[in-house]
From TrEMBL:
Protein name: NADP-retinol dehydrogenase
E.C. number: 1.1.1.300
Pathway where this protein functions: Cofactor metabolism; retinol metabolism
Organism of this sequence: Vicugna pacos (Alpaca)
MF terms (GO), sorted A to Z: all-trans-retinol dehydrogenase (NADP+) activity
Transmembrane segments: none
Family, per entry: Belongs to the short-chain dehydrogenases/reductases (SDR) family.
Catalytic reaction list: all-trans-retinol + NADP(+) = all-trans-retinal + NADPH + H(+)
SUPFAM superfamilies the UniProt entry points to: NAD(P)-binding Rossmann-fold domains (SSF51735)
UniProtKB keywords: Lipid metabolism, NADP, Oxidoreductase, Signal
Amino acid sequence: MMLLILGLLTSFLSFLYLTAPTIRKFFAGGVCRTNMQLPGKVVVITGANTGIGKETARELARRGARVYIACRDVLKGESAASEIRADAKNSQVLVRKLDLSDTKSIRAFAEGFLAEEKQLHILINNAGVMMCPYSKTADGFETHLGVNHLGHFLLTHLLLEQLKKSAPARVVNLSSVVHHAGKIRFHDLQGEKYYNRGFAYCHSKLANVLFTRELAKRLQGTGVTTYAVHPGVVRSELVRHSFLLCLLWQLFSPFLKSAREGAQTSLHCALAEGLEPLSGKYFSDCRRTCVSPKARNNKTAERLWTVSCELLGIQWE
C-alpha cells in the first residue's frame, strides 16, 4: 500500500512539473498595465530590501520616482538599493532605518524623513511578519499585531500630513486572502490567553483591511486615497518561521508567484488612473475583490481604530 501511495504521489508530482509552464501562467495573476511615469514623485516602501517590496521599489524607480527603502536591515537595504539604482538607472533610491517592532524607530524614521523631504506621494505599507513563535515587540505588543498592524498604523499617522500636502497621494496596505480566517479578538488582542501563530497572522491581515476601510472614510475630501492588497501566494522569505510552509513552498515553488508577479497589485493600486472612487477597497490580481463579512464591519473598524490609538498613545481624529 505504501508503495502504491508513493507511486501515485510521484506520478502526480511529475504531472505537475510537466504542466508547470501552463499552471504558472494561470497563477501569475494580474499585471499592472498603466504607463504612468513618476518624475518628481516621492515614494516610501516598508520592507523593500527583499521580495515583493524590492520588486515594487524597482518598478517605481524605473518610472522615475525618488524611492525610500524603509527597512530594519540597512545593509541588506543598501545591497537592494545598489542593485535597483543600476537596473533602473535612477540614483534616487535611498535607504533609511525602520524597525516596525519598535515605535521609537518608527518615530525616528518619520522625523528624519519629514526633515529631509517636503513631499510624499505614495506610501506602501509592505513589510510584515508571518507565523512567528509567540513574542512581543519592544513596546509589549504581540509581534504580528505590533509589526503588521500597529507599526504601519503609527507610520501612516506620522506621515499623513505630508501625504495630504502632496495630494493626490495614495496609501497601499498589503494584506492577504487569509484575512478571511481572521478575527479581531478585542478581549485578547495580545494573544496572552490563547495564541496560535497561524491565526495570529490571519488576525493581523484582517486588521490591515479594517484599517484601510476606516482610513478611507476619514480621508474623504483630502485627495489621499488608500487600498488594501492581496499579493497572491508568492515565493518569499515571509514563511521562514514555519518549517512546514518552507517545505511546501519548496515543493510547489514552480507554481507560486515570483516576487515581481506578487508586486503587480501593489503597483496597480499605487499607479492606476481612476481608482479614487474605490478608496478603502480590497484588491487581488489588479482587480477589486470581495472581503470577508468581518472586514466589512464598520463598528469593528471604528473600534479597532480607537483601540489602536490608545495602545500607541496617539490622538488621530
